[in-house]
Design brief:
Layout lengths: L2 H21 L13 H11 L6 H12 L6 H20 L9 E2 L2 E2 L1 H4 L2 H19 L8 H15 L4 H10 L7 H11 L1 H14 L4 H28 L2 H4 L5 H5 L4 H5 L1 H19 L7 H12 L3
Antiparallel strand pairs: 1-2
GO biological process, one term: terpenoid biosynthetic process
GO molecular function: metal ion binding; prenyltransferase activity
Pfam family, one: polyprenyl_synt
Length: 301
Amino acid sequence: MSVALKAVITDTAQSLEEKLTSLLGETLLSQEVARPKRLQEAMNYAALSGGKRLRPILMVEAARLLGHTQEGTLIAASALECIHCYSLAHDDLPAMDDDDVRRGRPTTHKAFDEATAILAGDALLTIAFDFIADERVHPDPAIRLRLSQEMARASGIGGMAGGQMLDLASEHRDRTEAEIRQLQAMKTGALIRFACRAGAILASASEDDIARLTRFGEIIGLAFQLADDLLDLTGDAQVVGKATGKDAEAGKATLVGLLGEENARQELDRLIHEADELLEPYGDKAQTLKTLSRYIADRES
C-alpha cells in the first residue's frame, strides 16, 4: 500500500470511527425510550471493531472525486457501514457461516451470545436508515429519499440478503460461472456498488457520472470477492484475521474453484484494468480510487 493511500484510509477510517462512536453512543434520539446497555455494547462491538472500512471509504472518495466534501457524507457512510457490520454479525452465527473469529477477535455471538448478536444486527440494520434520513446527510430531501431507497435495495432481497441466500443454497452444488457472478454481485457487490453510486448521488452528479461510478463499483465488488476467495484458498489465517479454507470445506461455489487459481488471478487483473479505464476521464483526481482498486486486488487480509 502506498504512503498516500495509507494516509487516506487512515484518515477516513478515523473520521468514520469518531462519527460512528458518536452516533451509536448513549444519547437518546427523539422518540427513543431507552438504549439497553448490553445491546448498545454489542452494537458497538460489531461496528467499532476496526476492519478495512472499504465501503465508507469508497463512498467518501467517490463523492470527493466529483467535488463533494461535506460532513454529511460521513453520516451516510456510517449508515452503510452499519449495514455491512450487521451482515457480518449475522453471517457469523452458527445457523449461517458458523465463524468464531472475525477481524482477529471473537465474533459478536461468541463475545456476547447468539440472541444478543441477532438483536445487535437487527438494531444496526434499523438505525442505518435513521442515519441516512438525517437532514445533515444532504439538504435536499429527494436525495436522502433516493439514498434510502437504493440502500434498501442494495441490502435486501435483491441485493446482499438475497445473495447470502444464494450462497447458502450453493453449498455442495455445481453452479455455472454466470450463476456465481450473480451471487457475488449480490452478496458482496451490491453494497460496494451502492457505496460508489451513493457518493456520486451525494455530489448531485450527472446521470452519466452516476452510471460510470456505478459500473466502477460493480467491477470493484467482483474484484473484492475474487480477492477474498483467493485469500480463503491461499491466505494465512493469522494475517487474514479469520479462518481460511472454509469455502472448500463447505463445498461453496466460487470463481476460484471454477476457474482455478491462475485463471482467477488473470480475471482479477482484467477487472482492475477495466476499473482504471472507467476512471480515465477524471484524470489525476481519480488517483486515490485507482490506487484503492489495486489495493483491493493485492490485499493480504
